[in-house]
Specification:
76% helix, 0% strand, single chain, mainly alpha
Length: 152
């Protein structure tokens, strides 16, 4: 039994190291960024960077009426946020702030747009956001690199 415990403890020690954690946090950052990036891209005119589509304006004016912002403000804010924060997450720059912003978006979507989607979708998004808010971007992030440069 001691041999098994020793093997288990060594395995846990290796998996709990900074490098394995860095790969996991990178994967979480990319996964969360991908969710919101694809949503942001669906809001713009095909072939453009940030030209908001008529369909997006319609959705915010007619379908997402519960959002507590005027549609003319909510549509661009959502579109820009779904482009900016995913880029920052992939870079690992302002990771905690970006994850917090996306958590806020998730809660707005949950409360005012798709309240039935908590267990199927939004709980997972929330978990990803919370991991990044608590742990940060990890070793493979510009947050860590800039922190090291500032410390010198």
């Amino acid at each position: 039994m001691r041999g098994f415990v020793a093997i288990h403890d060594r395995m846990i020690a290796r998996l709990s190291g900074r490098v394995p954690e860095a790969f996991v946090l990178l994967f979480v950052r990319i996964s969360l960024a991908g969710i919101f990036w694809r949503s942001g891209r669906s809001k713009v005119v095909e072939g453009s960077w940030l030209e908001i589509s008529d369909a997006t304006h319609f959705l915010f004016a007619e379908e997402y009426t519960g959002v507590p912002l005027p549609p003319d403000l909510a549509a661009p804010l959502a579109t820009w946020s779904e482009h900016l924060f995913p880029v920052l997450l992939v870079l690992g720059l302002a990771t905690r702030a970006s994850a917090l912003a996306l958590l806020g978006m998730t809660m707005v979507i949950q409360l005012f747009v798709f309240p039935e989607a908590w267990w199927s979708v939004h709980s997972i998004w929330t978990a990803l956001c919370l991991v990044l808010i608590v742990r940060g971007g990890g070793l493979f992030s510009l947050d860590t690199a800039s922190g090291r440069m500032l410390a010198r």
